[in-house]
Specification:
By secondary structure, the chain is α+β, with helices and mostly antiparallel strands. The protein has one helix at residues 65-76, and strands spanning 2-3, 10-11, 26-28, 35-37, 44-46, 52-54. It starts with a strand and ends in a 5-residue tail after the last helix.
Length: 81
């Protein structure tokens, strides 16, 4: 259990009923639902929870970075597009 800053209540991670406001340059991790900021050109994102996902389209979660790079190459013509 953790104290949620969005709804100001205690609950399990990723079980908040409040809608998360996502600032520009951020995406929501498909695994833990935390906002994640993109700080480099690559669209491969590794969240603090340890899961990987595609920043461009939100594909994921994946267990390895190679899964995301395979997705980026097949769906988006590379990792920097």
């Amino acid at each position: 259990m953790y104290y949620c800053l969005d709804c100001k209540k205690w609950h399990k991670p990723a079980e908040c009923k409040q809608k998360i406001k996502v600032p520009a340059g951020f995406r929501i991790c498909p695994s833990c639902k935390r906002p994640v900021e993109k700080v480099a050109a690559c669209n491969h994102i590794r969240c603090q929870c340890g899961k990987h996902f595609c920043f461009y389209c939100g594909w994921g979660p994946a267990d390895t970075e190679q899964q995301v790079y395979n997705h980026l190459n097949s769906e988006h013509n590379g990792h920097g597009n």
